[in-house]
Amino acid sequence: MNENIVKRNALLAQKVIKGLQSRNMAGYYAETREAALAIALSLIPAGSTVAMGGATSAKEIGLTEAVKTEKFRFVDRDIANDKRAAMLAAYDADVFISGANAITEDGVLVNIDGYANRVSAIANGPRKVIFIVGMNKVCPDPDSAMKRARNVAAPVNAQRFGLSTPCSKTGACMNCKSPDTICCQILVTRYSRHADRIHVILVNDSLGF
Fold first, then answer.
1. For the chain, domain boundaries
2. Cys-Cys link to 145, which of 110, 133, 174, 178 (CB 3.0-4.6 A)?
C-alpha cells in the first residue's frame, strides 16, 4: 500500500476512534491484518461463547478460523441442522463478531440485513460486539455511509449469494421490493447505551464489501 495512503488512514482512523469514544463505543486501529487479529483475540476471553453474522472481514483477517478452536465455544450456523436455533443462540453469546457495511468519520455504523439476525444481534443480546472494519468502509457522513451500504455492499452481497435482485444485475441500488431483497432491515448505530459492549477494530486494508 502506498505510504501516503497508510499515513492518511492512520490519521483518519484516529478521527473515527474519537467519534466512537464520544458514542460510548471503543475503537482500535490495526496497521495490518495480523495486528487486527491480535486485537480481536485480546478482546475475547477463553471459554467465551462466540457467534458471528457472516462477517467476510473477520474471515479475511483469520478471525473466523481462530474462534473455531477449542479455546472458544463457537456457534456455527453454517453447519447447524437447525439454523434458526443457531441464530437464536447468537443472542445469548458472550461475543458477537460482525463486519460493517459502512462507518462515518465520526463513528456512526450503518448495516443492512436481509434476515435481520445480524443487525438484531448488533442492536441487542450478545454481551460484546466486535466489528472488523477495513478503512475502505469509512465515509464522510451518514448520508454517504447509507449510499455505500446500499450501492456497494448490497449489490455485491446479492451477487455472491446468487440472488435475483435488480441490484445484482445493475450493480446499483434500485430501491426494490424484490422477494430476494437483502435490504430488509437497516440499522444505524449512533450510540451504545452499554459501556464496553461495542468494539470497532479499524484495519489499514480493504476488507469485505
1. 3-106+118-139+189-203
2. 110
Count each helix (H run) and each strand (E run) in the chain, helices first: 9, 10
Fold of the 3-106+118-139+189-203 domain: Rossmann fold (3.40.50)
CA distance 61 to 58: 5
C-alpha cell belonging to residue 104? 462515518
Tell me how far apart the alpha carbons of residues 28 and 203 are, in angstroms, rounded to a whole number: 9
What is residue 117's predicted lDDT score, i.e. its pLDDT?
Answer: 93
Does the pLDDT of residue 78 top 90, yes or no?
Answer: no
Residues with Cβ within 8 Å of 32's Cβ and at least 6 positions away in sequence, in order, are: 203, 204, 205
Only one residue has cell 434458526, namely 84
Q: Which residues of 120-154 are buried (b: 16+ CB within 10 A; e: fewer)?
A: bbbeeebebbbbbbbbbbbbeeeeebbbbbbebbb
